[in-house]
Amino acid sequence: MTGSKPVEIVGGGLAGLALGIGLRRAGVPVTVFEAGDYPRHRVCGEFIAGLEEGTLERLGIQNVFEGSLRHEGVQWFSGDQAAGKMRLPSPAVGISRFTLDARLAGLFLAHGGKLVTRHRVTGKPEGEGRVNAAGRRRAAGSPWVGLKAHVRNLSLTSDLELHLGDGAYIGLAPVEEGWINVCGLFRRRAGLGGDTPRGLAETLRGSGLKGLAARVEVAEFRPSSVSAVAGFAFDRRVGRGRGVVLGDTCAMVPPFTGNGMAMAFTGAALALGPLVDWAAHGVAWETVSARIHLALQREFRLRLGSAAWLHPLLLNRHGQGCLRGLTRAGLLPMRPLYHLLH
Ligand SMILES: Cc1cc2nc3c(=O)[nH]c(=O)nc-3n(C[C@H](O)[C@H](O)[C@H](O)COP(=O)(O)OP(=O)(O)OC[C@H]3O[C@@H](n4cnc5c(N)ncnc54)[C@H](O)[C@@H]3O)c2cc1C
Which residue owns the Cα nearest ligand 1 atom 30? Predict the structure, then answer.
């Protein structure tokens, strides 16, 4: 497309790179600014639930999932007790961020995108022609800490395991080359271990998950995969009035849904058409950003509200007891819940 105006994207994570690829395929000049580099480990559960083939096709990113795993069975535990088994209504995708982000970056470059790595944008991340996809917004006083590591030689009881502890939940999800991603969300408290193999085991033990800590302790750790993140918060609704914002910058859903990555891709796909209209067809930026905000709000409102309501249940004893009882009685409405959350 000749005569297209250029788009700048702040943040080369999932939303930024996927949007960049979609725009390049439409002939729009794109620069992505990324504070880090590739490949790199990210704190993430690394299973993607609710990812739609149509979204990937619109963005042209189906091939980056080649060789990824499909997970359907979930065994969940409350403390050290097995509490129930379930099947996801549609399979979740298993792929590490180490591989996924690097593949997206490679595809963006192959489509002629300009990628500026190790460059943290310090000015305003939004404005005409600029998209903010810089990930989690800083939340002062946040009560959450995320911890992850890849381990091997640990046998699973199902495709995926979910462990509910005291103020914590942890997912175990296989990714490539036999590695299993162990990733947890922990309520901040005294005595949390650091981002080392021993620190992860200590944190699990301190969350009432002694059995899981013992399994993790004897596993093989993937070098440099242990990572931690803090200072983030979850949203009940899509942020407004901040220009074009995508992915976690727009709204961050609690990780138990396994839907944050799918939301990053869906948001990029929803923004693609309006941004091409601005770049190539002269539609005003204000019109385009309002259209994108409305589309994101329509798409994500229900799942953000439902996730915000359910999240506290997973983190306290009463809520966990209630879930356990419903599962044992065969009364947990798995399908309707899944559809509300994805
Ligand atoms: C503990 C935890 C577990 C999770 N588990 C799952 C899961 O199992 N499944 C799932 O689907 N989702 C999960 N998520 C959510 C998922 O990780 C996010 O929703 C997803 O990464 C959002 O993608 P994004 O592109 O918005 O942000 P990111 O992937 O974080 O990308 C943002 C990028 O912007 C860059 N950046 C930031 N500031 C600047 C700047 N000023 N200049 C330039 N670059 C900048 C960053 O370096 C980063 O690369 C989890 C989240 C947490 C915290």
Answer: 135
